[in-house]
Design a protein that fits this description.
Length: about 70
């Protein structure tokens, strides 16, 4: 399962619903891209280096980045 699919499942929606929500808002859901970590948080839509509070790394990417929309 991809991180994008993982994020959608955690948020309780399908990928298209999540991307639509992120497209029309000033924040977007993001997920840590490190293997084995599924920390999620709201980030700016173009974020690719948001801070993961679980890993302590700058590896949180927005759903829009993961989908290749930005």
């Amino acid at each position: 399962m991809s991180k994008l699919s993982d994020l959608a499942a955690i948020e309780g929606m399908d990928v298209m619903e999540m991307l639509e929500a992120g497209t029309f808002d000033s924040v977007c859901m993001g997920i840590c891209t490190n293997k084995g970590c599924n920390y999620t948080t709201e980030v700016e839509p173009d974020s690719s280096d948001g801070y993961c509070e679980d890993c302590g790394t700058n590896t949180v990417s927005s759903a829009l980045r993961l989908a290749g929309m930005i």
